[in-house]
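One such shown below:

_____
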Amino acid sequence: MSVSPQKMIETVEAYVAAFETGDAEAVVRLYAADAVVRDPVDAQPVVGHDAIRAFYQGSMKMGPKLTLHGPVRTSASIAAFAFSVDLTLPEGPCRIDVIDTFEFNPDGLVQQMTAYWGPNNMHGSTE
């Protein structure tokens, strides 16, 4: 059973909105209980609600603001979206250009999130 494109788009929009308000719990609710987060793709996987909650609570402490760039792209069970993250590091303001993918399970929850970015995608205080 595939997830509707509208459901995937709404999930991405809810993810971005949760960052706007710093609501890690709202992000966790988008994920399956045994979901995997890889952010960035070559990082150690973060698995399960407790670890995902801690990951996002830590990430949100830096006050990131997410801005979508272009439409969410969808297939039968995967959404891909380009966005930037604006945040302030101890060294100063920074922007990170990212592409994320959400792989959905049949219940419409994110089973795996993979973030594609690296040092060359960081602009500002890190340059």
User: Anything to note?
Assistant: The chain is about 25% helix and 40% strand.
